[in-house]
Every structure is written in structure tokens, then in C-alpha cells.
Amino acid sequence: MSFIRVLIANRGEIARRIQRGCRKLGLESVAVFSEADRDAPFVVEADHAVSIGPATPSASYLNVAAILEAARAIGADAVHPGYGFLSENADFAAAVEAAGLVFIGPEARAIARMGSKIEAKAAAEAAGVPVLPGYRGVDQSDTRLLQEAKALGTPFLVKASAGGGGRGMRLVTDMADAPEAIASTRAEAQGAFGDPAVFLERFAARARHVEVQILGDTHGTVVHLGDRDCSLQRNHQKLIEEAPAPDLPDDLRDDMRTAAVRLAQAIGYRSAGTVEYLYDPERAEYYFLEMNTRLQVEHPVTEAVTGIDLVEWQLRIARGEAVGFGQSDLRFDGHAIEVRIAAEDPARNFQPETGTITLWVPPSGVRLDTGVGEGSVVSHHYDSMLAKLVVHAPDRAQAIRETVAAIDRFAAGGVGLNLAFQRALLTHPDFAALRHHTAGLAELFPGGWRPPEPDAQSRALAALALHLHLTPQDGNTPWQTLGAWRLTAPAGRPGAAYYWASGDDEPIRVESNGYGQSIILPDGAGLATEAAKLGEGRLTARIDGIPREYIAHLCRAKNHWQVHLSTLDGLAGFALETLEDRYFQAASGKTGGADTLVAPMPGAVDELRVAVGDRVAAGDTLVVLEAMKLLQSLTAPVSGIVADIYCAPGDTVAGQAPLIKLDQEEAR
């Protein structure tokens, strides 16, 4: 089973991570890429690269024939699937092996068995692993499912047998909603996974998500590499992961770990895998959730506390090597936290962000697995996760502090990120006190999360940064060296520049005071600075005689300037307008009427729910848009009659593109 050239059937940060593993063992890496990723870092850094098709995942990263043809053309002799895409596709694993290549992962039969949630739970039961009460029978009729639902009682979950990634799941708290939950889950399961089978499971309301990393070789050895906690989630997708799982009773932790090994041994598992559990602290019980037959996104925290390189051992096991250590050889050192950095706006229901990254200066001294850099284009075609920030410290409290400090040093711009939200999670008292759970995001932020309100000094510094950005500081012509106040100073009048915070009628005033600048806010509050300079993503100035430095980056939005500035609560964004911006908007008028539904971001039209002539009410879902692997329901902005439809299912649309025109005059 020897191999030299490894094709990586994935993209982004995980492709780069596998490339590092290949280099460590002296193996060659092959990147396959879509047209959208032609200039991506993982393509540039690979030993070989092959184009496999258009940007759409189904035509490239999910195109088995194209990937296998790329492997044949480049002479690859092994394939690593990474995670996501085809990583848990048993047919792909079988096709790789049928092509005479080594699949770096478990056997196809193990992927198929654990890929069916129904079969996986049956295997867990057979291995003596606790499972949640529910119905997993072959009778999928509505009558039988509703009968079992009544016997189970609320609350319960309807879940797709082939589901994953948070899709194909409905929570039922009222039995009257059960028929619709079953029908919609079945429809989503068929559309997303090609398998309409569903099962029912009791819902553990305040459970934590704990998982055990295992490693098995082809010689029958299986070891566990400890546990992780992944309880901070939104829509069943993980936000922050940590290892080891904190505050578990020792006997229960040992049971979880040995049960995971027992299950892996029972199915003859090889390679890296993860057994996931729901842990109910109130009952001090745990239940098998699923087994992931691949490398996990959160594998770096396990690597941090064990010192074991999981990608390296995936490659070694695939070559037939035996795991080079026993269970008693493993030591767990300290605590590690991983933060997923995503291009999304948590304050707008996690709406994905797209665009070009114009600044990317990560903090030093911590691990960052990333698929992007300055100049990278963030497309709507793929997942919004861009990077993973990993911190390792002696204990959990210090790991939290160091992660927050690393976030505060992360300078990025051009595309909105979720860093401020992740910081708010890490600093929330419930996270420190371990009161969080898998469905607890609403408890942490009732009414939804909102960015912290910047203080007066931060608002003033944001205006100063924009002023310095627009005022050439190193020019050598009169037009470059003379500011507005210099032209008016001889007349005894201090000149000033004006900037408006988005939505404000009164401006922020920036004027010279001879040694620096004075910034006056609309409410009269002011700030005096000396020796202020802007450059290389940093704003430096003396404030009250003390030299200070801030992360500061500016980029142009559609009709305003966006200033990213570090504050006491982390990196904050400020939307500011110049006099020219306000004049232009006043002269051109507002765009996009209230009677037109527009796309909030680039994406693909997944579903169109209305036809011309339909009467709709404000808030009704008209279009379902897919962007960054998420479905966004777009609702009617007003009540009215559908007058025109500018899109159809399957269309790719740009951000702010008009989708549906409503006639308000005929609304009742």
C-alpha cells in the first residue's frame, strides 16, 4: 500500500493542512481546484495542481469522475478526502479503490454503515454503547412514524438517516407539528442526501456535545486520543471546540472513551474517526449520537493536547503501518480551544459575507489553519469558514484569556468576519461557568447577538483613521501637503473635515490643533490626539500624552467607507460617509424600492415559492437562496401582488440583484 503522490479531493484550509502532512512524510501533494479557486493558496502551494471544473461544487469538488480523471492524468496513487464534500461518501471511497488508488480513510463498508444514522445506532447498541430512546425502524410510513412519535412524546427530533452538518433535522415540541416536521425532514433528506429515510429521537434539552477521537490501524489496534467538547453551536453547527471536555466525572469520561474504542473495534475501523455523544449533565448520562468516519474540523485541539499529528497518522495507517504507540503511552497536556473564523455577519442572522480580503494579518504565537490570505476572493459557492484559530495553554481559564487576546490581535478587512461574536462567546459568564449547551445560544443572547456599542473614543478614532486615509501624509506637492485647515489658517479660521456615521444627521468634525487633531462627536464629546499616523493596518497616536496603537483598516463599501478598528470589546466595524458620499446619495436618490425583493448576497436560487399574480403578505417567504452551503429564506418586504419575477430555480444571482417586484397598489 505504498504511495508517493497524494491527490487531495478538497479545498481551502483542510487542503493546506493535508499538504503539510504530506511534506512531513516526504510525499507529493496534488491539488484539484475549481475555476473559482484557481489562485487560492492551496493551489499555489501544492506540488501539482489540476483543474476539475466550474465553481459549482457539483461540477467540481463533488464530481467523482473529474477527480478520478485528475488522479489518472497526474499519476496520483492515493486520495485524501479531507472533510466535507466526498469525505463520507462510501461510493467515492469504493470508486477510488476500484481505480487502483489508496483511499486515505476507512473502508467503504465502514463509511456506509456509519453514514446511515439508523445503522450506526444499531451498531452502537450492539457494542453496548448507550443510545437515546426513539424509533429507527424500516417502516417509514406516515402512520407508523406518527404512532411512534406519540409513544415517544415531546420534545423529540425528526432526523434524516443520511443527514449531517446540521441539515435534515426538525425539533417537535407540539405533537400537532409532527406531520409537517416529518414531511419537511423527509423532503430535505431526499434533496440533500438522496435518501428520504428518517428516524425519531428523544430531545435532550440541555445536553452538551462531547466527542472522542479514535485512531485505528489495519493490524487491529484501536486507541482513543481523548475527548473534546463542541457544545457551542448554532443550527447544529459548531462554533467553538475545546479539549479535553471540561467538567466531566472521571468515571463517565472513562466510559465514553472505552465505549468509543469498543465501537470502533466492533466495526473493524481503521484511520482517524470520531464517536460523538450527547451528555446530559442533569442525569449524568451520555448517549451515542453518531460516528464521523473522517478527519474532524476540530482535530487541531486534540493534536495540541496529545502532541499526535492526526494527518500524519492517517497517511501512515493508509500505507499499512501499525499505530506506533499504545493507550498507556498517551499523555494529555493542558487545554486547547479552537475558534472557527467565518465570513458571516452574526448580527444579521449569520448572513454570509463575500468579497475580496484586503487585509489579513493574523496574530503571531498561535496556530492558525487557514485557506485564505490577503487578496483572496471569498465566493458564495463554498462554506463560509475561512480559518481556525487554535490556542493551547496550561488550563482552561488561561486558554480562554489567550484566545481572546489572539482575537484582539487579528487584523482583517475587506470581508466581514465573526470575530467579535466569537469573542463575545468566549467572554460570556455562562461559557466560563460551563452553563452553555447545544441549544443554548438563545439563552446566551436573548433577542439575538448585537455588536457592543463602541465608546466615544472608538468612534472618534474611526473618524480620525478615515481622515488620515483620505489625507495624503507623505506627498510633496502643495495639493498633497496642504490640508483644508492650512488653506484657511491664514484667515484665522481653523479648517475642518466632516464625516457622518451611518444613519446620523450630525457629522463628526476633525480639525487641526497645531500639533495634531481634535475630533468632535455630534454630542459634543471630543478627543485630542498628537502625532497620529496610519499605515500597514495600524493607527498610532498619542492620547493624553500616552502612545497608543490600534488595528485599523479601511475599505470602500458600496456608498460609504468601512473602518475596522480594534476596541476594548474587540475589532469593531464603523460605517462612515464623507461629504461627497452624502452629496452623491442626495443627488442620485435611493436605490431599490421598498416593493422589490433583492438578493442580500450572491447565491443560487434554490426555490421559488410564488408565481406572477399571487397575493402575498409582508414576511411571506418568496425565494430560498443558497449561499455558502446555507439556505436563506427571503421574505416579502411589503404586502402586495407579485408583478414580475426576475429569477428561476438554479439561477446564480449577484448581491443586490432584483428578484421579485410586488405591486402594492392592489394589496388588500
From TrEMBL:
Q: Where in this chain does the record put each Lipoyl-binding domain?
A: 588-663
UniProt entry tagged with the keyword DNA repair: no
Q: Which UniProt keywords apply?
A: ATP-binding, Biotin, Ligase, Nucleotide-binding
What are the Biotin carboxylation domain coordinates in residue numbering? 2-446
* SMART domains assigned to the protein according to its UniProt record, in alphabetical order: Biotin_carb_C
Task: Describe the location of the ATP-grasp domain by residue ranges.
Answer: 121-319
Query: So which domain of life are we looking at?
Result: Bacteria
Q: Which cofactor does it need?
A: biotin
Q: Which InterPro entries match?
A: ATP-grasp, BC-like_N, Biotin_BS, Biotin_carboxylase_complex, Biotin_carboxylation_dom, Biotin_COase_C, Biotin_lipoyl, CPAse_ATP-bd
Keyword check for Ligase: yes
Q: What is this protein called?
A: Acetyl/propionyl/methylcrotonyl-CoA carboxylase subunit alpha
What's the source species for this entry? Marinobacter aromaticivorans
